[in-house]
Amino acid sequence: MRAPPPAQNARRWTIHEIIDAAVLVALTAAGFLHPESPGTWFSSLAFSVAALVVPVLSGAAIVTWLSRRLGARIQGPRIKPAPMAREAFETARAMYVAACLMAWPLTAWRLGHPTGLVWDLDAHGVSVTRVLVQTFLGVVVIDAWLYWKHRLLHTRLLFGFHKSHHVFRDPTAFAGFAVAPVEALLTFWPILFLCIPEALHWAPLYFGLVVGFVNLNFYLHCGVTLSWVERTLPRIFLNTSAFHNVHHARANTHFGEALYLWDVLCGTRITGQTSEEATAESAPG
């Protein structure tokens, strides 16, 4: 007997999706390789997932609710409801990747090993000024990496790892971290620096920057603008909602993830019109 033909609507996984799935499996299975206590690693993973997914999705829900009541819609009235469930799933999956990375320094701390995250600078003979300078330089370097990572993901070879984010042409705050596993790994791998005792991170400043980065991403994807925020952020080269929304509408410009400095220096910033005008021209109508 002949085998029945495959369903016409059956969908095959792409090579990028297979690699993304393999990354999730590898990051999880890596816990079994912990040299001291795989059980501690997996319990750290469970804690990290809860500590990341719950606040991030809750924060996205709050910002989405507020954005419906405050600010001005960038792309005009929505033609159809935003795919918030898919945005939330993609963001939760990215947070799982971050949690797999976070489990390593958390496990080291729970086992009594020194880590790079410290609360008392005096005990390590380091001044606040030195930490501030090092952190500033580190932020600039990491943000440059994020910019070039983003541009590389827009090449023909690698776009398959990023295209799911561009399903959300008119995003909500739930899309703030809605990226596939490979991109999430390329974004969050610096968490592993916390495993290195010599790479000091001052905890109050570190957590403050993390919270600021999360909230900035919520604003960049919320789909509305607040005039006072749009005026303030560019003064310190920070991205804005109007600026980043152009990237979702056009895809081939405005690659900056936190700072827009690199778009200015590398010529990927639209000039001659406002971000709102550029988005309006590209928005589906």
From TrEMBL:
<feature type="domain" description="Fatty acid hydroxylase">
    <location>
        <begin position="136"/>
        <end position="268"/>
    </location>
</feature>
<feature type="transmembrane region" description="Helical">
    <location>
        <begin position="131"/>
        <end position="148"/>
    </location>
</feature>
<feature type="transmembrane region" description="Helical">
    <location>
        <begin position="45"/>
        <end position="66"/>
    </location>
</feature>
<protein>
    <submittedName>
        <fullName>Sterol desaturase family protein</fullName>
    </submittedName>
</protein>
<feature type="transmembrane region" description="Helical">
    <location>
        <begin position="173"/>
        <end position="193"/>
    </location>
</feature>
<dbReference type="GO" id="GO:0016020">
    <property type="term" value="C:membrane"/>
</dbReference>
<feature type="transmembrane region" description="Helical">
    <location>
        <begin position="12"/>
        <end position="33"/>
    </location>
</feature>
<feature type="transmembrane region" description="Helical">
    <location>
        <begin position="205"/>
        <end position="229"/>
    </location>
</feature>
<keyword id="KW-1133">Transmembrane helix</keyword>
<dbReference type="Pfam" id="PF04116">
    <property type="entry name" value="FA_hydroxylase"/>
</dbReference>
<dbReference type="GO" id="GO:0008610">
    <property type="term" value="P:lipid biosynthetic process"/>
</dbReference>
<keyword id="KW-0472">Membrane</keyword>
<dbReference type="InterPro" id="IPR050307">
    <property type="entry name" value="Sterol_Desaturase_Related"/>
</dbReference>
<dbReference type="InterPro" id="IPR006694">
    <property type="entry name" value="Fatty_acid_hydroxylase"/>
</dbReference>
<feature type="transmembrane region" description="Helical">
    <location>
        <begin position="94"/>
        <end position="111"/>
    </location>
</feature>
<dbReference type="GO" id="GO:0005506">
    <property type="term" value="F:iron ion binding"/>
</dbReference>
<dbReference type="GO" id="GO:0016491">
    <property type="term" value="F:oxidoreductase activity"/>
</dbReference>
<keyword id="KW-0812">Transmembrane</keyword>
